[in-house]
Amino acid sequence: MLSNKNDRRALERHVLAWLKTGENNPEGRLSLFDGLGQRVDPQIQRLAIRNGWAEGWFANPMRPDWMVCRLTLSGQRVLASIRA
User: What is the model's pTM?
Assistant: First the structure.
């Protein structure tokens, strides 16, 4: 897994950035791709799901191995607490 606190913090920053993509999307749908057009790392998705900030939504018919997720109420609260 992650070897030190800096690695964990970096991963958490990536998770928060990913969660922000769901704030303005219909039904909180989270992006499959980052700002550079790269697929979101599944490790980021798993961490957000494990913490209850995101949830699996439906299977992607074009790419069944990709998780389509949406922001949960808990994820919305985390983002709101950062803004406060």
Answer: 0.84
Burial group, residue 58, by CB count within 10 angstroms (0-12, 13-18, 19+): exposed
> Domain limits of the chain?
5-83
Characterise 63 by phi-psi region: left (phi > 0), alpha (psi -120 to 50), beta (else): beta
For residue 31, report the phi and psi dihedrals to the nearest 5 degrees: -65, 145
Tokens of 32: 């499959």
The CATH number assigned to the domain with range 5-83 reads 1.10.10.10
- pLDDT for res 1: 44
d(CA 12, CA 48): 9
For residue 40, the one-letter residue type is V
Mean pLDDT, the chain, whole residue set:
89
